[in-house]
Amino acid sequence: MLKTCSRCNEPKDESEFGTRGKKRPNEVFPYCKECRAIVSCMRRREIKHETFMQYGGCKCSCICGCNETEEDFLGLDHINDDGGKQRKELKIPGGINYYRWLKKHNWPDKDKLIVACHNCNLGRAMNSGLCPRAFHKIHPQSK
Ligand SMILES: [Zn+2]
Ligand SMILES: [Zn+2]
Ligand SMILES: [Zn+2]
What we know:
This protein is α+β, with helices and mostly antiparallel strands. The protein contains 5 helices and 6 strands. It has helices at about 35-55, 85-90, 95-105, 120-125, 130-140; strands at about 1-5, 10-15, 20, 25-30, 75-80, 115. Strand 3 and strand 4 (about 25-30) form a beta hairpin. The protein is elongated, with a radius of gyration of 21 Å. One zinc ion (ZN) binds near residues 66 and 119.
């Protein structure tokens, strides 16, 4: 049976839509699978963008000055490097669920969280909080 997607307006087979799972198997989604993937990607980017704007803007704020602005490369970083520990203690979910959690709790720890790209995040985690690129800047001869 064909069904028209209410987002892209393309008629597709009903199997291209999917249902709401076992609980409501008769309820078919109004959007096709492709459109649902687009919508969920947009929502993910939205909440990410919103979070970054709350914590200093959509830019890597690492002291090395890398200034990465691609949101897919950015994440939140704990200044004191205790993010993982705190998240474990409070049972805070990771990734996008973490951003939703922050929103629900009215954007806490604004003085402890910074926006940083994954390279700087990782670099800082491996060098007790100092981004290796910043280190090379301070000590150019150490390369
Ligand atoms: Zn569609
Ligand atoms: Zn960076
Ligand atoms: Zn850096």
